[in-house]
Amino acid sequence: MAQNMNQRARRLVMGIPLVWLLLLFVLPFLIVLKLSFSQEQLSIPPYAPFLHWVNGLPQPLLHISNYTFLFTDPLYISAYLYSLKVALVSTLFCLLLGYPMAYVIARAEGTARSVLLMLVILPFWTSFLLRVYAWIGLLKHNGVINNILMYLGVIHQPLTMLQTDFAVYVGIVYSYLPFMILPLYSNLEKHDVALLEAAADLGARPFTTFLRVTLPQSVPGIIAGSLLVFIPAVGEYVVPSLLGRTDQLMIGRVLSDEFFENRDWPLASAVAILMLLMLVVPIMLFQHSGGRQMESHR
Amino acid sequence: MNEQQAYVRIEHVTKRFDDFVAVDDVSLDVHRGEIFCLLGGSGSGKTTLLRMLAGFETPSAGRILVDGRDMSTVPPYERPVNMMFQSYALFPHMNVEKNIAFGLEQEGLGRDEIRRRVGEILDIVKMGTFVHRKPHQLSGGQRQRIALARALVKRPKLLLLDEPLAALDRKLREHTQFELINIQKALGVTFIVVTHDQEEAMTLSTRMGVMNQGRIVQVGTPSQIYESPGTRFIADFIGSVNLFEGQVLGETEARQRIRCTELGCVIRVDRHLPAARDATVWAAVRPEKIAMTREPPDGLAEVNPETENVARGRVRGIAYMGDASVYLVALDSGREVRVTLPNTARDADQRIGRDEIVFLSWQTGSPVVLTE
Description:
The complex is a heterodimer. Chain A is mainly alpha-helical. Chain A has helices spanning 2-36, 65-72, 74-107, 110-121, 128-139, 144-152, 165-188, 193-201, 206-217, 219-234, 238-243, 251-261, 265-296, and strands spanning 51-54, 57-60.
């Protein structure tokens, strides 16, 4: 009886996330997938029905024209490549900045550690949109940074920073840095100090110890943090729209334009599906390394 | 022992953490080729002392010399010292071979030389077939061997071992103890071992130092420490002991006796005593040095307060240990005395049983007289 209850409770607990995923991820995904194979049409909704009735039997109409179109118009390919480049470079900078920060936090004592962690999380208390807007004020021609540099005499002409790649990198690195720091911190914090002492005892200088003991053991943290930055950065919409170039779009912006400006839902869906396929590879890599890590730490 | 033989010299070393004194003005010489055990309870400062030898802590005062060289400013990675960690601290992402090779790679040795020496040390610890295993695929005893091999492969002159056997089960521990001694003899390395286990210290060490509250209270061979403890703390800490409080009767040099009311007799030691007449002293008698008989010894008619080295009591409890039995004997004063007797007779009927009246006696040489 008790075991029966237990089993039911377990099923319920496992069922909640399952239902959640089915309703809010799998189902919408299938709808988008279906849409991407539909044909655009001036109607409400703005696409032709997916199922076509032939002799009383439903026949799906698979239009791959949306996908072929993506590869014929250079706008899309360039947007994909640019998004990948921006996401990669931003992830790299987040890693370079975030690793030392996570390391220091993990090695800090009691109160200092809590304060530092708090500072990492603090920006989330303000709206993301607002924080990106604030960068306009900092980066613009007559903005804070230019004014300070001019006042100090470092430069004589204001620098053009807004609406450049630089501004996009700054915006994305700034926005996503906590997502790099937190998983890295949670990894580094678990490292056994005795291992560092053992390495020193065996004759390794501090930098060698870092390279051969700390770094290899933090690989799962690096992968988790990098994916948490890379995946949303590829589809980033707000930062490039507010800070980025006008002559080069990122895929997130293209997606939104197709959907809301052109009202071409099928094409927008195809853009989304292709982006998802691009991201599936790194996610699978993550799963793979995550699984391996779990095994070796049993 | 002359000056030159002091391979490790600890001079007035003190270590303070904020206002806590972990190691308090310790001076100690350890000689080449010794197995020296630092024995103490938790918080006695033994581990802190070991960590200062390895270079993980710096002394607040005093200095440490290894082979005549002051180690004060030498970082751990440049010391001619290796350590075996209590947790073993094997690198979890490296296999056995890589773990052991790590230290040699830091010395910039060639690939072939490294492989040769790793193979050599794995043979010594009998782990040759495990080269490609990761630490998590090894048992506790196997990890212990790899940790030992990793420290020894650097051919240190001094090896520090932090509770080397604590994580092993009893059988394996006994076996490993002897193996450690053999390896130490074969390689001629000086060992400094930290342990809280007195049995481990006794069997392993050539000399040992007992630590209490940051100080070394006595240094000596295991038998010196066991047979001639300097204080009641040591007598009680090493093995078990019966401590009897009494007053020095103070007669001639040759006839020295202690009146002990709780024993109900006089303890005769016939040795020079480091205490004046009427001073309070403690006589420490090991349980195995007390004879227990059904009849009073030497045809003694009765036991009275003037009797020498014989007390009368009743057996209150018996703990059968296989090879020996521990008896708890209650004296007329209510004081309980521990007596250990070897179980020479297999037949239980011949052994003294519960509630029997017994006589306890000992040699004049058996009690150790302590003044503190």
